[in-house]
Amino acid sequence: MHELPQTLANGLLLGSMYGLIAIGYTMVYGIVQLINFAHGEVFMTGGFGALTAFLMLPSGVSLWLALPVMLLAAVLVSTSVAVLAERLAYRPLRGSSRLAPLITAIGLSIAIQQMVWAWYPDAKQARTFPHLPGGPYELGPVTVQTGDVFLVVAAVLSMLALMWFVRSTRTGRAMQATAQDPDTSRLMGINTDRIIVTAFAIGAAFAALAAVAHGLRYGQVDFRMGFITGLKAFTAAVLGGIGSIQGAMLGGLALGLAEALAAGYVKFLPGLELFGGGAWANVWAFVLLIVVLLIRPQGLFSKLTADRA
Amino acid sequence: MRRSTVALPALAVCSALLVSACGTRSEAGATPGGAAAGETTVVIGFDGPLTGDLSALAIGAKNAAQLAVDQANKNKSVPGVKFALKSLDDQGQPGTGQQNATALTGDKQVLGVVGPLNSGVAKSMQMIFETAKLAVVSPATTSPGLTQGDNWAKGTKERRFTTYFRTATTDAVQGPFAAQHMHDTLKLTKVFVVDDKKAYGAGLAATFTDEFKKRGGQVVDTDQINSGEKDFSSVINKIKSSGAQFVYYGGEYPDAGPLTGQLKKAGVKIPLVGGDGIADANFVKLAGGGATGDYCTTVGAPLEEGAAGKTFAAAYKAAAFKDPYGAYGGYAYDSATTLVEAVKAVVAANGGKVPADARAKVTEAVQKVAFDGVTGKVSFDEFGDTTNKQLTVNQVKDGAWAPVTSGTFTAK
After folding, report:
1. Taking the C-alpha atoms of A161, A76, B262 and A58 in order, what is their torsion angle to the nearest 10 degrees?
2. B19 and chain A: CB distance < 8 Å anywhere?
3. Which residues of B226-237 are buried (b: 16+ CB within 10 A; e: fewer)?
4. Any chain B CB within 8 A of the CB of A135?
5. pLDDT above 70 as % of chain A
6. Residue A116: CA count within 13 A, CB half-sphere
7. What residue ranges of chain B are covered by domains with CATH 3.40.50.2300?
8. pLDDT of A118-174, one tens digit each?
9. Which residue of chain B comes nearest to A283, CA vs CA?
10. For the segment B326-364, what is each residue's pLDDT rounded down to a tens digit?
11. Do B223 and A6 count as a contact with CB atoms less than 8 A apart?
12. Is A37 left (phi over 0), alpha (psi -120 to 50) or beta?
């Protein structure tokens, strides 16, 4: 059992990343009730944006100096992709049946993946991503990397910023109003189109942050990385209660912990020896989702609200 | 209750996406060039994962096959016959490989195929080639069952496909050879075995495990990973607390590189050992500096050591291909040359013309082929496996694979 602290740390780190991406699913869903399946690809393009920035900087620049530039590039690329997607693909379909934008999202996801595959130089296989210098650090029984520190700090700070933004700014309150009732908010003078674009952009910025953390942690980016990670983040959003911002982050943490614990300990359960280990982590993640959906369809951390029915 | 009603269709969509992710995209390569008057065009097919994670290996192999074909044309190896290479991309996926096999057998000019690179893909293609009596010489597939039947491990070897040959040695030798080196030469006795559940990786890990135990070594624990995933923290966690002296990994470099990188970053400074699937420069690159000291086995003696290998490397360089020939370039060159030699024998026996039932005859001729290739002597045993059982242990030094020792496996 002496692996437990490290397993928990791994789960929390993975979960923070899922949570950051899940913000995008949950914000967009909260406002336009669209599951933006292209969000995984928004995340992926962020990774490539950061890589491009790094490659364009003169070689030999300290990664600590390069990191802000890479972050900026990632956010820029991701938000552009998300805003363009909203403008060109989703907005024309607003008001049509809910299935149309959903299928568009899936198509868009495939299209973006293939565009990166075809046009980004050498993206047909994984591209290496720079590593942060320093580390590993031993914190008692837990070993963490420099990239992990970045992930935790970034996740906590950005979450606090987002909560402050939604609660305390005019735009944030307009967002809450639009989520509750778009028609009435428009009558009250809120520019709902602008609010929707803002939701897409904020979600994309969080995904970009996650993409840089992903690159630093795993040392590579590739054109398919948004697919399974996006699915997991979506799962996290549903787990936490889709539409709820805190729920997305907590759902991410719950999912990350569940995966890490399942990979580490399921094989010690009687009768389940064969279903332990890293290869089964995904299966347990989705089992958790199904169980939660059966027991609490509204998600773990969400209050059941009547106004959506 | 909108929330609950959206979640279930969304799940259905997820699963649909998962299925569609295994979609197909076939890509035709070079089409046969025009033959001069009186010449017959013979097409040699190539199949391999030209795109995707393993593309570095496949592009090198394709180029090497192209080189063999070009040289055969230049030297007029077979008078009256012009060779052309037709290459298809299987993306490392069995389904796509199967479609490519059908496409190749459907093309009447194709008399032999070089490829595939993945054992799993080969499994899906063998029956199609067998039905069409089309000879296929793989430069890289090493899963023993492909030639020796599913029960090879129990000692009952049986050849099911008379058209399937390979210039690469099987894992039945490669895994044990690694066990021999780690246990007897390096005196390491505790191993943690990881594999990627694929035909190649799982097979390699199994043959290694058997031999390592036979020699008195101890397998402290095992785990499996999903190929394509990047988070290995749970398996690394287990390795860390297992007390293993090294990790044996059955799989390929796209996963092995990040695995060893993350392992070393987590402070576990033990070497990772693998088969020829990790013998690629990208392994070192993807490990981000963590690969130093890792081992891999490769089939045959180091290409650059023999005179023929040097000539090949020089010719490859002169042909100015964009990508390096990689781990399988030499084998792909020899595979293509095998087919050229077989066509030569068939044409010579038929009075200088390509016979009507050329495919069956070429298959028979491949079985009898014997020549000095760039990787050593090329000939095939009764199962279609190469008779060349030379293997090499390599280690990462100064950011590149370097040969450590060469030898043959001696059973204990």
Report:
1. -120
2. no
3. bbbbbbbbbbbb
4. yes
5. 96
6. 30
7. 40-169+304-380, 172-299+391-408
8. 899 888 778 888 888 777 788 888 888 888 889 999 999 999 999 999 999 999 999
9. B226
10. 888 999 999 999 999 999 999 999 988 899 889 999 999
11. no
12. alpha
User: Is B56–A125 a contact, with Cβ atoms under 8 angstroms apart?
Assistant: yes
Which chain B residues are closer than 8 Å to A128 by Cβ?
A: 285-286, 288
ipTM for this model? 0.71
User: Which residues of B fall within a CB distance of 8 Å from A279?
Assistant: 197, 223-226
Cβ–Cβ < 8 Å for B293, B395 = yes
DSSP helix/strand/coil, A169: coil
Of B334, B331, B389, the C-alpha closest to B172 is B389
Q: Which residues of B touch A234 (CB under 8 A)?
A: 10, 14
The domain ranges of chain A are 15-233
Cα–Cα distance for residue pair A39/A117, rounded to 1 Å: 17
Homologous superfamily of the B40-169+304-380 domain (CATH): Response regulator (3.40.50.2300)
* Cα A250 from Cα A252, distance rounded (Å): 5
Tell me which chain B residue has its CA closest to the CA of residue A6: B237
Q: From CA A148, how far away is CA A213, in angstroms rounded? A: 8
For the stretch A171-225, pLDDT in tens is 999 999 998 888 899 999 999 999 999 999 999 999 999 999 999 888 889 888 9
Please indicate whether, in this complex, the C-beta atoms of A241 and B3 are within 8 angstroms of each other: yes
- Identify the helix (H) or strand (E) that includes residue B125: helix B119-131
Tell me the C-alpha distance between A307 and A301, whole Å: 17
User: CA quadruple A290, A293, A299, A300: dihedral positive or negative?
Assistant: negative
Can you count the helices (H) and strands (E) in chain B? 13, 14
- The answer to whether A54 touches A66, Cβ cutoff 8 Å, is yes
Burial of A168 (0-12, 13-18, 19+ CB in 10 A): exposed
Instruction: Work out the minimum CA distance from A124 to partner chain B, whole angstroms.
Output: 5
Q: Are B181 and B210 in contact (CB under 8 A)?
A: no
- Name the percent of chain A in helix, strand, coil, to the closest 5: 75, 5, 20
Q: Specify the DSSP element, H or E, that contains B368.
A: helix B358-368
Residue B371: in which H helix or E strand, if any?
Answer: strand B371-373
As its CATH architecture, domain B172-299+391-408 has 3-Layer(aba) Sandwich (3.40)
> Do A217 and A10 contact (CB within 8 A), yes or no?
no
What span, in angstroms and rounded, lies between the C-alpha atoms of B365 and B346? 7
